[in-house]
Design a protein that fits this description.
Layout: H1 6-16, H2 23-35, H3 38-54, E1 56-57, E2 64-65, E3 79-86, H4 89-98, E4 103-107, H5 125-131, E5 138-141, H6 147-160, E6 166-169, H7 185-193, E7 196-197
Parallel strand pairs: 3-4, 3-5, 5-6
Antiparallel strand pairs: 1-2, 6-7
The structure holds zinc ion.
């Protein structure tokens, strides 16, 4: 399958490398770009460049942020005493899209995986424990329901419970092995509301 232009073909190949974009969608995007006004494409390019050059990690929750502290951590209306632990910022984004959660987050940067050499030191666990020295009511563990996610949840619960902080785990409903980022909002909300005390 070839397109009518080598330039478009190159763009299709680049786009098809992006997660969740197959060759067919890549083709649709490439032709959309080819037919778009220059200003629209310039603005798209500048957004991409901006994210690639200027994004850093929030020094409190370690999600991606424009400044030293992200918009969620610096929002006075968010409950700082409730911390949801997620594997990555895509999971955070999934929960934010549900729109019901009013606490804050902690992004681990992955899940424990002894087989691939990801131990506690490779994740932001020390940083989480530091945060728990402040006044915290609840830690919600929202790692994925994969083996790694469950291992991480068990490990964290064991570390946190002696601090006399309530530890909960998002309920099933999130399918086993399912990535949080791919789960619909109703299921995520049900998993959050039905969370179990560990
Ligand atoms: Zn933050």
């Amino acid at each position: 399958m070839y397109s009518s232009s080598e330039n478009i073909e190159r763009l299709i190949s680049e786009l098809a490398d992006l997660p969740g974009v197959g060759r067919k969608s890549a083709g649709r995007l490439a032709y959309f770009i080819a037919n778009s006004k220059k200003e629209k494409i310039d603005s798209l390019i500048s957004s991409i460049k901006n994210v690639s050059e200027n994004i850093k990690r929030c020094k409190i929750c370690y999600t991606l942020s424009d400044g030293d502290v992200c918009q969620i951590c610096s929002n006075a209306n968010r409950n700082k005493k409730q911390i949801m632990v997620v594997e990555n910022e895509r999971d955070l984004f999934a929960y934010e899209n549900v729109g019901e959660y009013k606490g804050v987050y902690h992004v681990l940067g992955g899940a424990l995986s002894p087989l691939t050499g990801v131990g506690p030191n490779e994740l932001k666990i020390k940083e989480l424990m530091m945060r728990l020295k402040d006044d915290v009511d609840e830690v919600i563990i929202a790692t994925n329901s994969s083996v790694e996610g469950e291992t991480t949840a068990t490990y964290l619960a064991k570390m946190i419970k002696p601090l006399n902080i309530k530890v909960t785990r998002i309920a099933s409903g999130v399918p086993v092995g399912g990535d949080i980022e791919n789960i619909d909002e109703v299921t995520l909300l049900r998993a959050l509301n039905g969370r179990l005390v560990l």
